[in-house]
Structure formats: structure tokens, C-alpha cells
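Sample entry (135 residues):
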Amino acid sequence: MKKSVLFAAVVALSTTVEAASLEQQVRDLQATVLNQEARIQKLEKLLSSPKSAAQAQQQISQDGWTKPSQWNRIKRGMSYGQVKSILGNPHSIKDLGDGQFRTYFYNGYVSGSGEVAGKLEFNDGQIYIIKAPVF
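Predicted structure, serialized as C-alpha cells:
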């Protein structure tokens, strides 16, 4: 009898702990959904006017370098303009005096990855070396 009562108490306690954990997970998910809804409303408001849409697109292109999928689009032989349209403007540029060799540097903090850095080396205006960040 004592074992049955003890077992029932352990099961009840375990169920209570699991329920509390699940309740916390639900609260976390609700907060995430509210945050996403606010972000969506903000973006929709930005996109509602042509000028704001252009600004939003510029911000998206400037953040392109922080996304692995954008780096996967970068291929040897691409031009400066093609790279900028995908990754945004580089954070710094190293240009050898003759203009033949140029390096684009992208670096900074990326959520979930920490500090990351990548670079692209150009020869005669075309990429020949790609060193994508490790996300």
C-alpha cells in the first residue's frame, strides 16, 4: 500500500513538472508569435509606400551577407555589381594599386553564429576566390 501511494505521488509530481515545462514552452511560443506578428506588421507598413519599399529592399540587400543561402549564390566569375546585389556593399575593400586585384571583406555579428567573416577576391573585375563565412 505504501509503495502504491509513493508511486502515485512520484507520478503526480512528474506530471506537474512536465505540465509546468509545457506551460513555459507555450508562453515562449506565444511570445515568439507576438514578436513575429509585430515584425510582419512593421514590414507590411514599410512596403505599403514605394519609397519605403525601396528602403526595405535596400536594408534586405545590406543584410544579405549574413545569410548562408546568399553566399551559396556567389559563383566564380561574378562581377562587383552582381556580388553587391546579392550580399550588399562590402564592409571594407582592399584594392591593389593597379586595380587588377580587389578583395571584398564582409564581417560582423550574426545572430546564432557570433562573429563571422567572409571575403571575395577579384581579378580583372571577376571573382576568383570565395571564402564564405562559417555560420
